[in-house]
């Protein structure tokens, strides 16, 4: 039984809390948040303690930490957990700055503290099956990868300003998928983007529509397409094409209902957003974090995976700005 | 090269004319119709002779006859072709009356004249593949069959009155499919029907919505569902279920386009009606008729197939009227 | 907060236990089972009391009873709960005997005790949406209903012998779906069945393949097809056809993955069996039971619904035996 | 009635011959080919004259020319037709060299001779419906375009050597689709490619796997993916994504059959290659060529469209070679 300290009582924190409580191998002992009321509320919901942030790591009755606080606090928390010798499962990203991200990761390494990152898509059952089929040789040698990722609606411009930009905030998930499914590091990144959805996003110096092309050393190619708006739900699809075939994962829907009429056959839009699409993934990644602490080999992203995805996002940003493809060593 | 005399210059006759002309192994030498102008027009379109009905069989430069005239003339034409020693491909049915149907069929047999019936669905590429997969053992032993057949809109009540009723006019195609795919004769027919689409059809003594259940001697079961109206096109589907799996044929559409939006994903309705859905079937059945004349083994329905389908339709009608299941020897 | 006594610690009991514990509005206080060890194990899993069957209703700290014991004990437990004045949610059926089923239901009525039956399919999100669309008028007036229900594999013959037969054990779910979706009582039942899957089932006097046709007073028709074996998973589909369109619910799958290769495009088989397909339904029906106790209008089947579904199953059995359609008043 | 001279009796020439003969508004008067026997055979099949290449344009009884000869002869034939004042429908491309292509096009312009190019995909019913939906505003403002185009198997290396390379030989079709569907000229081309399918193709200086990214002046983006090998048939898909939705065209299949079994649900692979997938397109583009000669507004690609597609292919080739994105004015 792994006892958890939960850092962050916001939307994602609440999901993790529920999964910790309901999991057969985990329990929630305490929760903390900069907003004391949010912490108290969540603690009350699951009958655990609410603690102040600066007292959180002084607790002794927990085995692991789940960090789901705001992005700008991740690195600090990781370093404090490292100092306390507590294994960490941290929501992505480590940090928006590659230097700071690397630094906190190194501290966890130096302390011998396991550090995993919440790239939850690795635990989506459909994407996990893609990975499995590729590894099993179902499509022969993987040649090209095609990732589509579109949010249902753009975030507030205020959020966009603090987000680090589309590549670091949104596409970073797809960049992790690319590395994970390709099983290799891209050596080149080419990126293009526009503000087609919301001119305010453009005015804030960011983009809302983007395409990226990646290339591996052995010549395999990957396309990624992002949009901050999608009228038919949360569009999350991947297609992996190989010498002997193709595996693809389509969107998920709430039901299997079709309505037929003069207009033709209509099936449901994609699930609305990540809370619905990745509900299973949030639960399964937590199970594997517990498994990892018990020595199981897992697909969880590590701190290093987080750092490498951020490197790709930075390269994409540089390619967008400079207009040229960026080589990665 | 098989030279054809075409009897009937209506909607179906015109389809057959075009297929005869375009086929590599056939030519059209003459066409006749009770309506001399229709015959003349069709003859002019394809540069062949228009002849009067009573002089049609006096021609000598043709090898086979295609009968696509009105239903009540089929039996007479078959008997005249039998007398003239000319092979016949006749649109379904032989006749609406089982006695008359049997009689004309016997005359063709006695004259040694090949007689085939236009149960065109046997040549629909999707249904033909069902037959092939069942024969190939793909689904193991066939256990149940499920046939859905819905017209886009009810015919005029005037047509309904002369049609012989839904079972003889419409479901007879499905009854042929059932016999053909089951590979066995049903020994029991149970039928129910209602006039739900158009009360005028009910007032005319017919039904527009029907279900039939068939059973074979070895206990296999078949469901048929018919409606005279369908808002999403011509609904033509079959599902064959067996010990090791299922094969099913879905509707056909004009394009492979999907429109995604707030409403979900919308694909096209089924093709509008039989001219579109069975365009390939009309062409392929004609090819096989020519093949049959050249000794090829074919899936074409014979006169006997037409007689047996009519027996089933009669039994369905009797079951509907009497309320009990009808046994067939 | 509704406090539950759970009767039955078997496979279904364990599902309900988990849903009771995890539900926001419910808690599990005690569990009982003829097998004391099973009760103790489940009680230990969820930190509640295990009690002996004959002492179960002597407890006072619970508000409702969930009956998930073996079928032959349902009626007794219902009567005991009625005497104790405790609301009941009972797994289907009330009893295999219509007389006994009616009797226990009447006792609950007389005692003013709410009695609901676990026809869980009403809470499958896909079937629930069918009901919703029909009620919303999406397909205009409902004309025909088509229900397919196939188990992945036949149960042991020993189970078959005690089951009451396919109609009362398996098709009763589909008969409830038919009544619920038609929104009317069938006035006629015609049934046919065979032992095509397992001759042992036939030797035991039962069937494993069945078709039923239902008719309502206003002439609407319904087909049901059952098989005790299906190679591609748990085949649970419904199609509702109306004047203005059709709504259908297809099978559910574990992922949205497609594998494309020389063979074509392959998607996943249906979910394996009811535990997977109806996991959501088990959870949602319990929520509505709690809602019902709080005065919410719900879609839960009542004791009377259970009695009427059993009447239809009995009629189907009689039709199979006698060969004629059975009229229902 | 438009009377045709057909230049080229190869695979594509034979398709056009059949469509000319079967079309209601066209007839075939003569055919020529460098291979006199091929010309004679085709002429015999359709009862028209076979003529020698250098005498072909001396004929006077034709109204238009269809050029389906080898690529390196297109420009010459176009110039000769221009001199003879005969309208031309020419298979793509004008020429592999942009200078020569421009030159012959200018001569046709100067002579006032209509010149259309066989970018047949514009007449694929599915892609044509995409164009229609975009124009109709179904998806709001078009933002991104995603084109997948994979051949079933690589051509002989010998062909590859003479082909002008993947961009000019294969992707040029997709580049035309991009221009046509975007309704705007790309201002930037970025291309990457590898020889992953056949090392011989790499040894010949070409690639067999490619990705291209296009950008328009207003920031819209387009991805194109090509492969010379695809295990599941001829993979021809397009997805157009806009502010209000998405329209996509999927592959076409020979039948609507699904096989269900332990493996799941299997539908057919894509149609084998262009002759099957674009059979309708070949017929429809010819109808529109005839329509264009009669003054109809058509979607046919013009000589200028051919030139612009070639400019994009040249730019892609340059981007591949230099490693940088190529700007187009």
UniProtKB/TrEMBL annotation, chains A, B, C, D:
Keywords: Oxidoreductase. Belongs to the Gfo/Idh/MocA family. SUPFAM superfamilies: Glyceraldehyde-3-phosphate dehydrogenase-like, C-terminal domain, NAD(P)-binding Rossmann-fold domains. The lineage of its organism: Bacteria, Pseudomonadati, Pseudomonadota, Gammaproteobacteria, Steroidobacterales. This is Inositol 2-dehydrogenase. It comes from Steroidobacter agaridevorans. GO terms for molecular function: nucleotide binding; oxidoreductase activity. Pfam families: GFO_IDH_MocA, GFO_IDH_MocA_C3. The keyword Protein transport does not apply. Residues 127-247 form the GFO/IDH/MocA-like oxidoreductase domain. It comes from the Bacteria. Residues 2-119 form the Gfo/Idh/MocA-like oxidoreductase N-terminal domain.
């Amino acid at each position: 039984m792994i006892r958890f300290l939960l850092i962050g009582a916001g939307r994602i924190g609440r999901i993790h809390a529920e999964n910790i409580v309901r999991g057969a191998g985990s329990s929630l002992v305490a929760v903390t948040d900069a907003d004391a009321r949010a912490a108290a509320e969540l603690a009350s919901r699951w009958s655990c303690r609410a603690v102040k942030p600066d007292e959180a790591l002084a607790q002794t009755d927990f085995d692991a930490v789940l960090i789901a606080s705001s992005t700008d606090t991740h690195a600090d928390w990781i370093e404090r957990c490292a100092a306390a010798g507590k294994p960490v499962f941290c929501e992505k990203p480590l940090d928006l700055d590659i230097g700071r991200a690397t630094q906190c990761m190194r501290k966890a390494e130096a302390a011998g503290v396991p550090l995993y990152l919440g790239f939850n898509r690795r635990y989506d059952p459909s994407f996990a099956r893609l990975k499995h089929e590729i590894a099993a040789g179902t499509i022969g040698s993987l040649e090209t990868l095609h990732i589509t990722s579109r949010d249902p609606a753009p975030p507030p411009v205020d959020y966009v300003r603090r987000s680090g930009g589309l590549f670091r905030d949104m596409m970073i998930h797809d960049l992790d998928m690319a590395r994970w499914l390709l099983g290799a590091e891209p050596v080149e990144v080419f990126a293009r983007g526009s503000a087609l959805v919301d001119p305010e996003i453009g005015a804030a110096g960011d983009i809302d529509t983007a395409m990226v092309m990646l290339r591996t050393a052995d010549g395999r190619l990957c396309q990624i397409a992002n949009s901050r708006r999608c009228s038919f739900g949360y569009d999350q699809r991947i297609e992996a094409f190989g010498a002997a075939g193709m595996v693809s994962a389509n969107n998920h829907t709430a039901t299997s209902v079709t309505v037929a009429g003069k207009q033709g056959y209509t099936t449901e839009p994609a699930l609305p957003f990540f809370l619905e699409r990745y509900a299973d993934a949030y639960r399964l990644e937590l199970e594997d974090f517990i498994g990892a602490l018990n020595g199981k080999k897992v697909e969880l992203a590590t701190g290093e995976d987080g750092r490498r995805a951020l490197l790709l996002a930075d390269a994409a940003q540089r390619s967008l700005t400079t207009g040229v493809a960026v080589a990665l060593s």
